[in-house]
Amino acid sequence: MTDQIELTPTSHIVLGLLSMSGQATPYDLxxxxxxxxxxxxxxxxxxxxxxxxxxxxxxxxxxxxxPHGRRRKLYSLTPRGQAALTDWLGTFTPEPYMLRDPALLKxxxxxxxxxxxxxxxxxxxQKLTGYEALRGQIPKEAPIGPRLALELxxxxxxxxxxxxxxxxxSDKKKSRPA
Length: 178
What we know:
This protein has 7 helices and 2 strands; from the N terminus they run H-H-H-E-E-H-H-H-H. The chain has helices at residues 9-21, 26-35, 45-57, 79-89, 102-108, 113-137, 144-175, and strands at 61-65, 73-77. The termini are far apart.
């Protein structure tokens, strides 16, 4: 018998990463997430350690424990897990973009605009540079999904850099004596 559970975004991340890798330990999942979806989706690392066991109890994953040594647990997709991932990928819902940006909260509540803009401008320039460097490392034969996700990230960072640059320049002009 398998548990009936609600699949969460973390569940779908685990299912997706395992569909790409074949099998992995929770540590492997944490490493994969950091290099891939972690660039645009934050999740506590502890969830990547607990979620595979939850999914295995529900029949979405198989779990094999090494008989010797560190006795790590290796997880892989079951047919039920693959079907759940396929269903999720094929279900298109009008979910809004979730922007969870501490700088946006500070902006909203009245932080010093110039100081905030200067720090955010540098932060987003660095992120943009990193994304652009990563784009140069992706092989041409890589799946289109990760390439397009990276492209959207680059465009988002460019617009964010433009926004903070405008704020840094306009606020500086406002603060000059007449």
